[in-house]
Amino acid sequence: MIEPRKQAYLEAMGFDVWVARPERPLPGRLVVQAGEGSTLLVVPSAEDQEIPIARDIARACAGKPAWAWLDPEGRPDSPALEEAVENGLFTQVVVFGQRLADELFKGEAPPQLIASSAVTVVAALDDLATRGSAKQELWRLMALGAAISPVS
């Protein structure tokens, strides 16, 4: 890419300067962290997995769940959710927050299954940390095995 100073110099001399535009980030691309379990926990950003409620949820899962978050750069080599599920052989996907689900599924209703993985959208981590009813609903889903396979 041409330096801004050189570009200004050429433009001042009357030369048309063509500059490649940076590629737009691809929406819905994920960074997937390695895990040992069959569960993929999807959060908006990498920092979200360090929130105390997120650590509690991870400890309650069977095995060590994998974490995924939106790739802020939207690189084409970062997988979409469907690719991450197929590559990681996950059997359960938990998406934290409706806003994140809307972004991942392009405003469509989330599917119940991706490949052979059950998909569950639960409250955002902030809501889970502050609203008792949201936390109760998550633990209820865990007890039913609908959201996350709990540790036996």
Radius of gyration from the alpha-carbon trace, in angstroms: 20 Å
Number of strands: 6
Reading the helices and strands in chain order gives HEEHEHEHEEHH
Specify the overall morphology.
elongated
Number of helical stretches of at least 4 residues: 6
User: Mind telling me which CATH architecture this is?
Assistant: 3-Layer(aba) Sandwich
Number of domains: 1
Distance between the termini: 56 Å
The helical percent reads 25-40%
Looking at how many chains there are and whether they match, the oligomeric state comes to single chain
The major pleated sheet works out as: 6 strands, mixed
CATH class: Alpha Beta
Q: What fraction strand?
A: 15-25%
How would you write the strand order of the largest sheet? 1-3-2-4-6-5
Structural class by sheet pairing and helices: alpha/beta
Q: Going by CATH, what is the homologous superfamily?
A: DNA polymerase III, psi subunit
Write down the CATH topology.
Rossmann fold
As residue ranges, the low-confidence spans are none
* Mean of all residue-level pLDDT scores: 85
